[in-house]
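Entry 14. Ran structure prediction on the chain below.
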Amino acid sequence: MQNNEAAVGAVPASGDNELAELGLAAAAAAIRDGDITSEAYSAALLRRARRYSELNSFITIDESAVLSAAEQADKRRAAGSGAPFLGVPIGVKDSYSTRDLPTTLGVRTLEGFTPAEDADVVGAIKSAGGIVFGKNNLVEMSWGLTGHNSRYGQVKNPYSAAHVPGGSSSGAGASVAARIVPAALGGDTVGSIRVPASLSGVVGFKPTTGRWPSRGIAPVSHTLDTAGILARSVDDVALIDQVVTKNAAAPLSARSDLQGARFAYAPRQHMELIDVDIEKHFKSALLRLQDAGAEVVEIDLGEDFSALTDRIAWSLFFRETMEAVTGFLRQNDFPVSFDDIYHDLKTELKGAWGHLVLPSGQGYISEETYEAALSVDRPELQRRLGKIFTHSGFDALLFPTTPSPAPLIAQRSMFTVAGEEVRDLFLAKNTVPASGAGLPGISIPIGLTGHGLPIGLEIDGAHGQDRKLLDLARRVESLFDAMPAPA
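Output, structure tokens:
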């Protein structure tokens, strides 16, 4: 991490904690109204990044560049600029190309490489006045759910440094939870935004697949991938969504009640194996929704639902990686090949790629199985989930984002849930269906376990109805206490 200690001071300044608690919209408003300067705000966040450097949430921060951008933002503000995010620093997952900062994709092979262009989403953030605070740590090539990176360090959960933060957008989630930045760009293929949002106690939004631009973002699967955002409130997520999509629709409604809202939940599919604290908080959340005037109805998505969703997600995830990565490196002028990256991966990931991603691997998905996942299984999943909204008239599907809280780092590959041993992929059990069907989904924090670990509630909406989902999520969010800052 690049530092400039003389510029920001080595000792936290008075008021840093108050500044760090500002969300994206609040910070932008304070800068716009002249209550604070971008330079003072950015310096406070840089000091906080140093203070919490042991979380390993960032690979790169250029402090001089951040402060220079903040100074320019203050000049633009004095000249009358009203850009939506003017002077607000935002984290960027290191799978996004950034023309002014190295882009590593989390691998040693690309250490020090700086692309010629920004990813489209980064460009949209900058055009709105946002400042790239730094590049967030991630699982190598976004292939993992626990936040482990052999080169740049294991990302740690701000609520308990002994636990994982989720992944692959691990640094993004941890940096937002730790109040280092008010928001961070992430990526989601099978849950890589929503899982860290749940485990790290922040809001994580996966848009309808294809709704956000993907150019300049390293892929895993062109069918499943989507860019997205982690922040500390639904309002902040909605503001970023509006800017990135250039959506001229009106802001979210001022409505706060849930009268007339209809929610479905499917315990047979989403709660078959679940941590006792997660189950308790989820059931309590359903009661809160009912007390607020919503209708909550139990449904069943079919005995084969889990097998169907796993078959789709993992077939596409494994089979599309090589083609997607190869094309990205070539199209974006990265100075390495797929083989270069493969040969320098950490041992366990290289083994997984050798088995599942390379055509010579014993676990490589056959063309027949891949085509069936695309042309038979995926349409069936889309039909089944689509009926929830079109035929049954529900506004959203609810479930615990992750069926367990954050496991210990020491047990990240295999851990126990309700007395049963599970592998790390279990963390994505509930997030996989929305990815397979391309639906929008958002995870919001609803409390802490008895051991102080965050719990997330996921709300999935109808395909293309992202703004409606965000409005509904904001109203649900208002029923729960704000998450306390990590100790």
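The two ends are 24 Å apart (CA to CA). Will compare against last week's run tomorrow.
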